Amino acid sequence: MTDFPSASATFKSISEKDFKRLGELIYSQCGIQMKESKKTMLQARLQKRMRKLGVESFEKYCDYLFGSEGMRDELIHLIDVVTTNKTDFFREPKHFEYLTKNAIPDLISTQKSVRKSVSIWSAGCSTGQEPYTLSMVLNDFAEKLQGFTYSILATDISTQVLEKAKLAIYDSEVVDPVPLEFKRKYLLRSKDKNRDLVRVVSELRDNISFRRLNFMDDDFGLREPIDIIFCRNVIIYFDRPTQEKLFNRFCRYLSIGGYIFVGHSETLHSLNVPLTMVAPTIYRRNK
């Protein structure tokens, strides 16, 4: 793959055969359905990747992808291309209010040990705004409750967004939703006056572990129970059978009495899962 198409190169439309092959692979690997309405989006996103590889047609890209080398080296890049990574700091703020006023105090009240701690999983963390928001909120909570500690696991299927998340560097406009008090405490401005960037302080970064995780895997590799799972605005891309399978899998790792937060446009209604809704878009494991 040495004859690189130019940056302005155009590609013939993807064939129905190749679109179907890609759709079946994406569904099996990510649980995301590639409906006909997503065909244009998939073509546009793949073209940039194809130019980088020096591939001049969707047919040749599929030939490469479905070969042994492609399955080993390219599949992870395809997943990066198709996954959507929209996220914001303090998105759906009522969740963080419920977290500190209801969920965490309730979990602490059931702990028999003197040590007060919670473990939280940001499942589908994208570029890190959600786990860093959680860390700000929990650090603030810890300052008011002596002896309280927390840990955050942040996972995503996309290696590209995880690299950005680990850096914890953002354009200043991205952190607009962060309350002023938290900006002063937890964000550092770049010393380079020509770059309008901020970075989350190490105090918060140190409480977060980032790693790649695919929801379609049978074993998530978590060895300790999780108290709270944030999986927001992720399952809207899955069909109902996949959603049900995923949330039953989540419940394997969620402690009894633990909480799951989903997005404002998502619901677990009609899913056969051991969860009870305790507030809009907030559920609790009951067995």
Structure description:
This protein has 2 domains: 16-82, Chemotaxis receptor methyltransferase CheR, N-terminal domain (Chemotaxis Receptor Methyltransferase Cher, domain 1); 94-285, 3-Layer(aba) Sandwich (Rossmann fold), CATH 3.40.50. Helices cover 41% and strands 19% of the residues. It has helices at 16-30, 39-53, 58-65, 68-73, 75-82, 94-109, 129-144, 159-167, 180-186, 202-205, 240-253, and strands spanning 116-123, 148-156, 169-171, 187-189, 197-200, 208-212, 226-230, 254-261, 275-279, 282-285. A 7-stranded mixed β-sheet has the order 6-2-1-7-8-10-9. Helix 2 crosses helix 5. The longest helix is centred in the middle third of the chain and has 16 residues, at 94-109. Mean pLDDT is 87; it is low at 1-8.
Task: Profile the largest sheet.
Answer: 7 strands, mixed
Determine and state the CATH class of the largest domain: Alpha Beta
**Unreliable runs:** 1-8
Architecture of the largest domain, according to CATH? 3-Layer(aba) Sandwich
What name does CATH use for the topology of the largest domain? Rossmann fold
* Strand percentage: 15-25%
Q: What is the CA-atom radius of gyration, in angstroms? A: 21 Å
Distance between the termini: 54 Å
Derived structural class: alpha/beta
User: What order do the strands of the largest sheet run in, or round the barrel if closed?
Assistant: 6-2-1-7-8-10-9
How would you sum up the global shape?
A: globular
Number of strands: 10
